[in-house]
Design a protein that fits this description.
The complex is a heterotrimer of chains A (526), B (673) and C (118). Chain A has 526 residues and is an all-alpha fold. Helix content of chain A is 73%, strand content 0%.
């Protein structure tokens, strides 16, 4: 089918996966509330499978997008390999996140349709964030995602920690959104459009250099994104929010929000704002450096596994920023691949933490993991895979992902980043392996209860997750090829030549690298 | 299935590896089966007893067939088996490729052969252990990774094996994890090896940057043209590689982990910490000989570090009382010899010693294991908590354990370099070439260390097997020889320790026929490196630094070693030792040696403690202090510390916003200013 | 440069001047002799009780949120209505979806009992 954006119906087709998820969310909410009324008792068990079905439907719709032919990419939503790949990742995060969370919701007696509704709404936001090409839609998407996640963070109403985390996250998030919005306003002010295809061509026309307003706009936009992916120094909320939030929610936001944030960074900063590269190159470089170093050192001092994983999640944002800083098709592919791998390992780790922590999420200290490997062999084995992958050991997906990021950095001549990545990864071995040590080499005291046996959904998700990481480590060929195709397929610029813009003014603007190079030539040396 | 003769016949035309993947798969399958067994049928000893050794013996059989095929075909170039493309990103393509050439074939034979023997021995040694199945799972897994290390056709695959054997070593050192001290030995091994890995990784990174590939063949073919002889790049690559080797092969300054690694079961010490894994560094230098040949500075460093380690470890070994510690330092010392050999460019000599050392050191360790087994058993019977490893508690064991006694003497004579045992040929070759290639000082050191070797080994034998028994009157009746499943491996290794050296007999020796089997076998592998060395002035002086030919010095060294053995024996055999519990710590020079030159203490004081203090200080301030602080709201002292930390992670939104805004302002300022 | 904004700028300046002028005038022209009674806050003749930062029942917030939601709905309705004809059927459908989503929210609140005061 050929997609034609002048027809409203075709815009619906282009947004089909998002629409499927959104409708599923509304249906879940309505069915649930009409069945349950005002009671705060747990919901009927079928809302879970219903939501999963809807998400699987969205996955199919997303796969269907691959078959579309899109001659003119001039809509507010992109239909390209990158968006489809991001949608797959985000939908995967949602499906696995839900599968993992059922056990927690049942254990805490908080299985409600609202939880699922909020997850689905956050997913819609994430998907739009990875696909939109308009600053207004971007803002709506980021708020939809954020507000849902704020509420999810405070979902455990009986827990003071949860409430505190939600309030902090909300305050900081609103604060950051202010900067983001101001950045959007400044970009709009200096270029005169929120449509990125027009923004890009305006900048490429030469209005970029020595335009402080545009620079400030780009910088503030980047700050907003950096907050979402918790890059240092905009990461301060992360340990508190991640530690306080219900653990399955922590996994969901660590994987999903980060993936969406990176999708936005890749699309908006490195592609659409490629002509303004001189503005953001240095910032991204420093963000990557700081975000690799600071949390890795901080994680060494943690004796709470959940908080340690929170710092680890920040550190991974740093590794991913290396892929962004490489600013090449290879770098984008590496970022994409690593995001997928990261989502699998991070979701699994947090899920296992809540299982060990027991009712009320009380036992997440390092010492609570003693003897886990012997008491729950399969769970222990899965956790070992997740942790080794986080640390970047072969033969796991985490290793291949880091190698991929490294080769992208080296190819782009970012040796310092590459070396920092290796060194900080080596540091991180210590705190990941410490957990494995506790699990196998220390005996659990009698007083420490054995973690409950996980349910079917959990077991399914954990075994698929761990196996996928091993497959990605041993036979990454297919995944790498997919990632490299998706990483190169970001909205072909050919179709979006702005009306009135002389084609000669944008030499070979189709290739972001080339147009960047040419814009650099015309500007004074930095 | 093709029949064996047919396979060999086919192979004659051009060497094609036979069932290459199965060499790796068999140990892996063994590891998986035993690993499952460790959880599901813990009590069952029959399955691991069969599966564990069978997996490795099967791999050994395939290797032998491959060896015969390769010998028949005598290929000049390595045969590469590509299993699958592991990853490709940009220009980088890394395949799971296995390289079969003469060097890896020799290593395969040694690794699978010695492993087979040790697996059989373990059936007897570990029978009583509750973690029996787990033990075999680790051991099989180790063999699997060791074979990957050996067979890797590029740096990345080798590194996978390199990390894998490290992991298994770590697991096996901490095998008895209930014991705190053992567990901390595992940690020490882990940290030291990470330093080494860092070197390997950096070297790999440099290779990739300069060659765009990690394949050995491509890199070695391109190296002479791509890099300047003796240039900074090749020197850096090789020095970083060597840093990796010092970690894995326990050389100065990273050797401290190996003696502590003896906390693991004794067959593990024999296999991993003596015969195979620790020689990986030597193998790596030999494998990358082309690069080392191009970097004279690195070569000198390798040789000097090797010689230094050989001497240092030998001196420490003379004053240890734990039988396994003596052997551990002996291993460190012998590894030093191998590095001297590959450092000066005598690659074949280094690999030769690697091979013979694998035989006699495995023999000695298994022998010590038999002793410990018997001692442990006796003490167990009488519920004594004496240390079965301490040689001061042993003595006179020859009456109880004649086979162990005899085989261990063979091992001792072999390692001391007594003619015509294996060690004589390999060690002499190293010492000779060190002198003949003009490394006078190293030659002297190597000779002294060789004499020390004869000395401390004789001391070990005397204290363990001769003189009066010091086990204690009630435990003594319970001492007896080990079962056949344990002494047959000893006998096999004893035979190998005798005949193992006969594959390479120098021309210069009178009476004996000259044999060049090993030199000829390895010739195709080392030809390029030797070519580079000879083009840059390496020449064989055919005489030692102070004159005399090879035959003369071989004679002198074997006679000297024999004299040392006899003198040590006579000096010690009538001496009486008090049992360990009644002994005091040695003083004077003996005390310094007993305390290993205080190197552990030195490391603790100068590196570990300051680092720990710094680390604790930092994180007390930045994070730990304030988490405790904010939760407990405590005394002023902690609050002062917490205050600095609380500047960062206070838990207060206002502070977070402050840093947020600071970040924004810095970003804006960088451009606007 | 950007002609369209000049009008706004003028309005802004005039507004500020206007406000400032009147404040200044009242300040200059008035006579002040404060007494305790005069200086106290005037709360419809009732003495002020306690702090204004008091805890309110969550019900007030429910109402407030509902008000904002439907307030914003009207904001969207006005521009939509003004170009209703140009947008045609797709516009009608889009707005219906918008109202439907709001309706779902209302239905949820209703069933949850948020609209009942007690």
């Amino acid at each position: 089918m050929i997609l034609d954006f002048s027809s409203s119906l075709h815009i619906v087709w282009a947004l089909l996966p998002e629409i499927v998820v959104a409708v599923t969310g509304l249906v879940v909410l309505m069915l649930d509330v009409f069945q349950r009324g005002s009671r705060s008792a747990p919901s009927a068990p079928w809302v879970g499978p219903l939501a999963i079905t809807g998400l699987v439907g969205a996955v199919l719709a997303n796969a269907w997008l691959l078959t579309l032919e899109v001659p003119a990419q001039n809509a507010q939503i992109a239909v390209d390999g990158f968006r489809i790949a991001m949608n797959f990742i985000v939908l995967g995060v949602a499906i696995f996140g839900l599968l993992y969370s059922f056990d927690w919701l049942n254990r805490e007696g908080q299985f409600t349709g609202e939880f699922i509704f909020l997850v689905l709404m956050a997913v819609v936001g994430m998907m739009l964030l990875g696909g939109t090409r308009d600053l207004i839609v971007l803002f709506v998407a980021i708020e939809l995602m954020s507000i849902s996640v704020y509420v999810l963070t405070g979902y455990d109403r009986r827990s003071r920690r949860s409430a505190e985390a939600a309030l902090k996250y909300f305050l900081m998030g609103a604060f950051a959104s202010g900067f983001l919005l101001y950045g959007i306003a400044l970009i709009f002010g200096s270029v005169g459009s929120t449509n990125l295809s027009l923004v890009t061509s305006e900048i490429a026309l030469g209005t970029a250099s020595n335009n402080p307003m545009l620079f400030a706009g780009v910088a503030l936009l980047l700050v907003g994104f950096a907050f979402k992916v918790s890059a240092v120094p905009f990461h301060m909320w992360t340990p508190d929010a991640y530690e306080g939030a219900p653990t399955p929610v922590t996994g969901f936001m660590a994987a999903g929000v980060k993936a969406a944030g990176f999708a936005a960074i890749v699309r908006f900063i490195t592609i659409e704002l490629a002509p303004a590269a001189e503005f953001w190159e240095g910032i991204i470089w420093w963000l990557a450096m700081l975000t690799m170093i600071v949390p890795n050192l901080a994680a060494l001092a943690q004796d709470d596994v959940k908080r340690m994983l929170a710092y680890s999640s920040i550190a991974h944002a740093g590794y991913l920023l290396v892929g962004v800083a490489a600013d090449s098709p290879l770098g984008r592919s590496a970022t994409l691949f690593y995001l997928a791998v990261y989502a699998a390992m991070t979701l699994g780790s947090f899920a296992i933490v809540y299982l060990v922590a027991g009712k009320g999420d009380v036992r997440s200290k390092l010492s609570d993991f003693r003897g886990l490997g012997w008491r729950r062999p399969l769970l222990g084995a899965a956790f070992v895979v997740f942790l080794l992958s986080l640390a970047g050991f072969p033969p796991t997906g985490g290793f291949i992902g880091k190698l991929y990021l490294l080769s992208a950095a080296v190819e782009s001549g970012e040796s310092v980043l590459a070396i920092t990545l290796v060194l900080t990864s080596l540091i991180s071995y210590y705190y990941y392996l410490r957990v494995i040590w506790k699990m196998y080499f220390e005996e659990a005291p009698e007083s420490l209860p054995t973690p409950e046996r996980p349910g079917l959904a959990f077991g399914f998700a954990a075994s698929i997750g761990a196996l996928a990481l091993l497959v990605a480590g041993l036979f990454p060929g297919h995944g790498l090829r997919t990632a490299s195709r998706a990483g190169e397929d970001l909205v072909p610029r050919a179709a979006v030549v702005a009306p009135g813009a002389a084609p000669s003014a944008r030499p070979s603007g189709q290739d972001p690298a080339a147009s960047r190079a040419s814009s650099n030539v015309s500007e004074p040396e930095r | 299935m093709l029949s064996l003769p047919l396979l060999l016949q086919e192979a004659h035309a051009a060497y094609e590896p036979i069932l290459p993947a199965w060499i790796l798969l068999l140990p892996l399958i063994g590891a998986v089966v035993n690993g499952v067994g460790a959880f599901n049928w813990r009590g069952n000893k029959a399955i691991p007893s069969i599966v564990g050794p069978a997996a490795v013996i099967g791999a050994f059989a395939i290797v032998v067939v491959n060896f015969l095929a390769m010998r028949a075909a005598a290929p000049h170039d390595p045969a590469i088996v590509s299993l699958w493309t592991w990853m490709s990103a940009g220009d980088l393509r890394i395949g799971v490729d296995l390289q079969f050439d003469q060097l890896s074939m020799l290593m395969l034979l040694v690794v699978t052969g010695v492993s087979s023997v040790i697996h059989v021995y373990s059936v007897g040694y570990m029978r009583e252990d509750p973690g029996y199945s787990r033990y075999f799972a680790y051991l099989n897994l180790f063999v699997f990774f060791m074979l990957i290390l050996v067979l890797g056709a590029n740096f990345a695959i080798t590194f996978v094996g390199w990390e894998g054997v490290g992991l298994c070593s770590y697991l096996l050192i901490g095998f008895w994890y209930e014991n705190r001290e053992f567990a901390s030995a595992g940690k020490k091994a882990f940290i030291v090896n990470r330093i080494g890995d860092f070197g390997f990784l950096v070297a790999m990174f440099l290779v990739f940057v300069h060659f765009g590939t990690l394949n050995y063949e491509t890199v070695f073919a391109a190296a002479p043209a791509a890099l300047a002889y003796g240039g900074a790049v090749v020197t850096a690559i090789t020095l970083f590689l060597f840093l990796g080797c010092t970690g894995k092969s326990a050389q100065i300054p990273l050797y401290v982990w190996l003696p502590d690694a003896m906390a693991g079961p004794t067959p593990v010490s024999a296999l991993i910490h003596a015969a195979t894994m620790v020689t990986a560094g030597v193998y790596l230098v030999a494998r990358t000989s082309v690069l080392f040949a191009m970097a004279p500075v690195s070569q000198a460093v390798v040789a000097a570090v090797g010689a230094g380690t050989a001497l240092l470890a030998a001196t420490i070994a003379t004053q240890q009382y734990d039988i396994k510690k003596v052997l551990a330092y002996s291993t460190v010392s012998q590894l030093g010899y191998m590095f001297v050999a590959v450092g000066i460019g005598a690659y074949t000599a280094g690999i030769f010693h690697l091979m013979t050392h694998a035989f006699f050191k495995a023999l000695l360790f298994l022998g010590s294991g038999a002793v410990i087994h018997a001692m442990h058993h006796a003490y167990h019977e009488v519920h004594s908590h004496e240390d079965p490893n301490d040689m001061r508690n042993q003595g006179g064991l020859r009456r109880f354990m004649p086979i162990t006694f005899a085989t261990m003497w063979i091992g001792t004579l072999a390692i001391s370099g007594i003619f015509p045992l294996a060690g004589f040929f390999s060690k002499d070759e190293i010492i000779w070439y060190t002198g003949a290639y003009g490394y006078g000082i190293l030659w002297g050191i190597a000779l002294v260390a060789a004499l020390l070797t004869a000395g401390y080994m004789t001391r070990l034998m005397v204290m363990t097997f001769h003189g009066e028994n010091r086990t204690g009157a009630d435990a003594e009746p319970h001492l007896h020889e080990v079962p056949a499943v344990m002494w047959i491996p000893l006998a096999i290794l004893a035979v190998l320790s005798i005949v193992g050296g006969w594959v390479n007999i120098p021309d210069a020796l009178p009476v004996l026929p000259a044999v060049h089997a090993l030199h000829d076998w390895l010739h195709p592998v080392f030809e390029p490196a030797r070519g580079i060395l000879e083009a840059h002035g390496l020449h064989d002086a055919h005489s030692s630094p102070i004159g005399g030919g090879e035959a003369m010095w071989a004679g002198i060294s074997t006679v000297a070693a024999a004299v040392v053995i006899i003198l040590t024996f006579r000096a010690l055999v009538h001496r009486t030792w008090k049992p360990a519990a009644d002994s005091t710590e040695p003083t004077g020079l003996a005390g310094v040696l007993y305390n290993k030159w205080y190197v552990d203490e030195l490391y603790d004081r100068t590196i570990v403690l300051p680092l720990l203090a710094l680390w604790r200080g930092c994180w007390r301030i930045v994070d730990a202090g304030l988490i405790d602080g904010s939760i407990n709201g405590l005394a002023a002292g902690t609050r002062a510390v917490g205050w600095i930390g609380s500047l960062f992670q206070t838990g207060r939104v206002a502070t977070y916003m402050f840093y947020f805004v600071t970040g924004v302002l810095v970003i804006l300022a960088t451009f606007l200013l | 440069m950007r002609q369209a904004y000049i009008g706004i700028a003028i309005l802004l300046v005039v507004g500020l001047l206007n406000a400032g002028l009147f404040l200044a005038l009242s300040h200059l022209a008035s006579v002040r002799r404060p007494t305790k009674v005069k200086a106290s806050a005037y709360e419809s003749g009732i003495d002020p009780l306690g702090d204004t930062r008091d805890r309110f029942s969550v019900k007030f917030y429910m109402v407030a949120i509902l008000f904002i939601v439907f307030d914003i709905e009207t904001i969207f309705f006005f521009p939509w209505a003004s170009i209703f004809r140009e947008l045609g059927l797709p516009g009608l459908i889009a707005m219906s979806v918008f109202v439907l989503v709001l309706g779902v929210g209302l239905a949820y609140e209703w069933k949850k009992g948020a609209l009942e005061w007690e």
